[in-house]
Prior knowledge:
single chain; 101 residues; alpha+beta; Alpha-Beta Plaits; 4 strands; 40% helix; 32% strand; globular
Amino acid sequence: MVTCHIKYVIDPFQLEVFEQYGKKWIELVNRFGGQHHGYFMPSEGANNIAYALFSFKSLAEYENYRKLILTDVDCQQTFKLATDTKCILSYERTFLRPVLD
């Protein structure tokens, strides 16, 4: 299993737009065979940092997902939402592996 952890720097004046973006990606990741663990919005502390976590059974499945989203209409519309509104200022992607019993 591989888990993608994304740290977003977001526009704090566009939280509703970013939340809309996040809800759409939860649906899309799950549709493409991943398991989305949710988006985590600012609450206390920094008002411009958000996180997302989602997993795929393997790196190969994640790489296939990355190929498929480039041509999917729903994915392109969701990318466009973020681009048009500039609700995401930057992001960092980190890949993690679980430690399980």
